[in-house]
Structures are given as structure tokens and as C-alpha cells.
Design a protein that fits this description.
Blueprint lengths: L2 H4 L4 H7 L5 H15 L1 H12 L4 H15 L27 H20 L8 E2 L2 E6 L2 E7 L4 E7 L4 E3 L17 E3 L3 E7 L2 E9 L13 E10 L8 E3 H6 L3 H11 L4 H31 L2
Antiparallel strand pairs: 1-2, 2-3, 3-4, 4-7, 5-6, 7-8, 8-9, 9-10
Helix pairs in contact: 2-5, 3-4, 4-5, 6-9
């Protein structure tokens, strides 16, 4: 797989197939990098690439991967780039080296993310629920004759991954698994001044029991009058599950309200599209800030 083809994928997706690249090809990249930059500048990025299992290290891994695969980055230390989006042109010294590299990387990454974006316009409705957006928080509401159904979730830190794909190193454009947002969500059933509140989360395929294919499970349940406060009593899903049939009956009750497996899968698709849009917006805001716009 050529480095140019590999770089066509967004950095968040490139992380997923890094471990599946043949060691011999990675070794060739390292040798080329050593000849260009010297041993001391290469060893540190490689050390970080080895431990990208933790989320806080993944962004650093993507940056180091870009450093090793980009010929353009080797020229930044000596030549002021005319591609800087702020329009500083050839006015040497207007931006620091780190700022120039970051802006150029972000420009490339934003283009890749927009190319990978499946939903360009975020819908305002999901299967009869009206969507309201406020930063990272999404609220879905549906009113019936007897009650108000409100679903809220936050897309922050909600991105999960499907099963790791097999990557064929001989393909110029290998298939990379899709990133999906699967946030915990709260379901409020409001009837007059009383509210039943159910906190739910997605069930990983590996944890689904034989014979059951529920996309989500119950984490917590509470009921209260007026506004919720810290003194409201709640019971965990594990306790509900220990009571004969109660857990399943509550799931059936939610299903009658419209929270079917199909709907929750649609919720994940919506959250994925919105999270991706928010991520691109963050990259654009970061680029403008660094460029001084």
C-alpha cells in the first residue's frame, strides 16, 4: 500500500489499520525516515506508535504517522510554505514552524474527513421524533395525547468501532471499518408533573445473550415529581434484571413507546453523522485559531 493512498483516509480511520500493515513495510518507512531526519527524531514517534491502545495516545500516533509518510513535512523546517491558509504567503517568520505544520495538516485532514462524510445535512427528525441540537447534546421529543417522550444524549466520547477489518497490504485502497457513535441515552416519559426516567446504553455484540438481540439495555430507572434532583431514588439495571420478568417487561414498555431496536440503530446513525459533523467543525475551528483568523 502506497503512503499516498494510505493518507487519503482520515486520521481517525487510519489508526484502525496501522497495526495490520506488514512489519516489513513499516520497517522500510522507518529506514527512509531515518535517512531523512536522523535516528533521534524517529525513535520517539516510533515509541509512541507502539502504544496507541489508549485513546489519549491515538491522536499522537496519527500525527507521527503523518510525519513519517509525508515528504512535504520534511521541507517545512527550511522553506516557508506558501500554502498557509491564513494568506501570509512568503512573509517569513509570521508563523512558527509548529503552527505552519499544524495548519497544513488540518487542511489536508478536513478535506479527507469531508470526503468520508456520508451525511452532509443533519436531519431534523427521526421516525416521528423532532431533533433539537445544542452543542454536543441532542434532544429528541415526541408528544402524544397522554404524555411527552423525550430522549437526550451527548455525542462527546461516544465513538466506538466495529470489529477490526482485515487489511490487505497489496490493495491500494484497503477497506477500513467505520467509526460509529453509540452514546448512552436517557428516556424521559413525562405525564403531567410525573416523570419516569430510564438511562440506557448500547449493548456490545459480544455481550448479547443467546436468543436475545437487543441493541440496548437498561442501566438505571427512576421516577419523580417536578424537577429531578440528587435526592431522587434510582435503581440499577442489574437489580431490575434480578427481579423476575421486570427488566424484560420494562423493555417491552419502552418498545411500545417507539424505542425499538430499529429506532435505536437509527439513533446511532444520527449520532454518528452529528458527531462527525461536530468533529469536522472542531478541526476547522482549530485551523482558524492557529492561523490567526
Amino acid at each position: 500500500m502506497s503512503s499516498e493512498s494510505f493518507r487519503q483516509f482520515p486520521a481517525r480511520n487510519r489508526l484502525r489499520c496501522t497495526f495490520f500493515i506488514n512489519f516489513h513495510k513499516m520497517n522500510s518507512i522507518l529506514k527512509a525516515a531515518i535517512r531523512l531526519n536522523g535516528i533521534r527524531t524517529v525513535l520517539h514517534p516510533v515509541k509512541n506508535l507502539v502504544s496507541v491502545s489508549r485513546p489519549q495516545n491515538q491522536i499522537l500516533a496519527a500525527r507521527n504517522l503523518w510525519y513519517m509518510t509525508s515528504i512535504q513535512s520534511q521541507k517545512l523546517s527550511a522553506i516557508h510554505s506558501n500554502l498557509c491558509s491564513c494568506g501570509c504567503g512568503s512573509r517569513k517568520g509570521v508563523h512558527t514552524k509548529a503552527e505552519k505544520e499544524l495548519v497544513e495538516f488540518l487542511t489536508e485532514e478536513i478535506l479527507a474527513e469531508r470526503k468520508a462524510q456520508k451525511v452532509k445535512t443533519i436531519p431534523t427528525e427521526i421516525q416521528g421524533f423532532t431533533a433539537s441540537l445544542n452543542g454536543a447534546e441532542v434532544t429528541l421529543t415526541k408528544k402524544t395525547d397522554s404524555e411527552l417522550i423525550k430522549i437526550t444524549f451527548n455525542v462527546n466520547n461516544s465513538v466506538d468501532t466495529d470489529a477490526e477489518p482485515e487489511v490487505n497490504e497489496n490493495l491500494d485502497k484497503p477497506e477500513i471499518g467505520e467509526l460509529k457513535s453509540k452514546p448512552s441515552f436517557k428516556v424521559d416519559l413525562v405525564r403531567g408533573d410525573n416523570t419516569i426516567s430510564v438511562l440506557c446504553s448500547f449493548v456490545p455484540p459480544s455481550e448479547q445473550e443467546d436468543g436475545y438481540n437487543d441493541s440496548f439495555g437498561i442501566d438505571e430507572l427512576s421516577i419523580y415529581s417536578g424537577e429531578w434532583n440528587e435526592n431522587v431514588y434510582s435503581v440499577s439495571g442489574e437489580v431490575l434484571d434480578s427481579v423476575r420478568y421486570l427488566y424484560d417487561l420494562i423493555l417491552n414498555y419502552l418498545e411500545e413507546k417507539g424505542l425499538t431496536n430499529e429506532f435505536v440503530d437509527k439513533l446511532s446513525e444520527y449520532s454518528t453523522a452529528y458527531e462527525h459533523s461536530a468533529y469536522i467543525g472542531l478541526l476547522e475551528g482549530l485551523s482558524k485559531f492557529v492561523a490567526g483568523k
